[in-house]
Amino acid sequence: MAATHRLRLDLQLFSGEKTEAATPKKKQDARKKGQVAKSMDLSAAFILFFSFLTFYLFGGFMKEHLIGLFRTIFSDYLLMNLSLDNVMVLVEKVMVEMMFILGPILGATLLIAVASNYMQVGFLVTGEGLKMQFNKINPIEGVKKLFSARAAVDFLKSVLKMTIIGIVVYNTLMNERSNIMQLAHLPMEEIVLYSSSVTMMLGIKIGGILIGLALFDYMYQRYDHAKTLRMSKQDIKDEYKKTEGDPHIKGKIREKQRRMAMQRMMQDVPKADVIITNPTHFAVAIQYDASKMGAPSVIAKGTDFMALKIREKAKEHGVMIMENRPLARALYAQVEIGEPIPGDMFQAVAEVLAYVYKMKGKAN
């Protein structure tokens, strides 16, 4: 049983089955392309609910301005002489009043549309959706989408919404049937007021119900989006190689960098004042320029084969080589290339340099 389980896991590595959650990089790349978890039903439901709520809150204000507009038109402007100036004044008056009347509902709709989208996806600006994608007009792909699982879910959602809305409308009208039967005996103004109140009540009820359904749709969209972005184990490995670099390529780069560093180090050996050796296993090149350096510095070092190359390079350019086993080991272990000699080794190195200068006839 255990062997079968291991075999299944091993085969999964090669099957390409997308069983792993998307990495942060893939989620970020998908977001840049505009691929985010978003429910259009949630935005539409919020707009419907708050639009009717705005009508309910600002209905009196809108009614007064609308009645005032008609009163002004019929009592004042229709009695004026027909001229271009009078028509322009009338048009301006109507436009200003319509802005006051429609302003609350248009402002609320715009605000809710922006807020509902921001709550779902945050701030996102991308032009990927504007690019021409010919695969979207492929008839074969279109037919596949018609019979896909997403299409089936969308169809069921539509049926569910229409069923619930139908039940709500039916129950509301049945509860109001006695009042509806009395409308024939009421004046027109009361009929309009009653009809508008029932309509607003229905709109708020339906909007609230649709918001509840849309929340479930939003959760489904998040699940479906996460499922779409799933990756196989091979996808994750390939992404890691792209972001972190292929280990083989990184190894070659490090090897090339090491060779270049060695070449630069070997080019500095002729500048050394002395090469301190072990004598065969270690070699450390020391340089001291009183006008530029506060203390002697190590400009090259190596062991075994590299130590041999340093000694050969030093002989070619007449650099003195001195054997001092403890000092060579200590310098190699404690001082990196380009670093000055530490204080505890300064006396020993100074003695070596003084001897070198004396031998070269540089001592004062």
TrEMBL record:
Transmembrane stretches in the record are 42-62, 98-126, 147-171, 191-220
Q: Which SUPFAM superfamilies match?
A: EscU C-terminal domain-like (SSF160544)
Q: Which Pfam families match?
A: Bac_export_2
Single GO biological process annotation from the record: bacterial-type flagellum assembly
GO cellular component terms listed in the entry, alphabetical order = plasma membrane
InterPro entries attached here? FlhB, T3SS_substrate_exporter, T3SS_substrate_exporter_C
Record key words, sorted = Bacterial flagellum biogenesis, Bacterial flagellum protein export, Cell membrane, Cell projection, Cilium, Flagellum, Membrane, Protein transport, Transmembrane, Transmembrane helix, Transport
Its annotated compartments are: Cell membrane
**Topology in the lipid bilayer:** Multi-pass membrane protein
Role noted for this protein: Required for formation of the rod structure in the basal body of the flagellar apparatus. Together with FliI and FliH, may constitute the export apparatus of flagellin.
Protein family: Belongs to the type III secretion exporter family.
Record protein name field:
Flagellar biosynthetic protein FlhB
